[in-house]
Amino acid sequence: MQRSSSINNFETIYQLAGDRTTTTFSYNDVLRDKGTYYYRLQITDRLGNKNYSNLTVLKSSGNAQPVSFYPNQVKGGSNIMGMIQNMVVKNFEITTTTGQVIYRSNKNINGTSTIPVRVSAASGLYLLKISTGSKVITQKMVVQ
Questions:
Q1: What is the pLDDT of residue 79?
Q2: Dihedrals phi, psi of 41, to nearest 5 degrees
Q3: Cα separation, 131 vs 120, whole angstroms
């Protein structure tokens, strides 16, 4: 799948290897910037020949959140799921409100990913910190 904010310069945002039986797929593109976006499928056959679908046009209000975690209230020992949309994450941490790190992952995450995180912490308020290298996004989480 390719996306462009103009009609000319498309970038590949999602790839799926064909298996001759898959005829549908889905992709959730979180657009943080307001504007008009153009989408098309690039279909490459076994010989390397490329064909393109008709364009689909979408308008974005720019209100999408690039990071979400759920549930916000968890029981100790259970998992939370994190959805990282269209960004490269360099570091992910769960800390206490005083800054003590109880979970850290330095795994690079690029694109749309779901991350299961097991929370084994005492009851209380914790902070989820996502670092992209240039920006830190922080969300609150309650452990029961």
A1: 66
A2: -95, 135
A3: 22
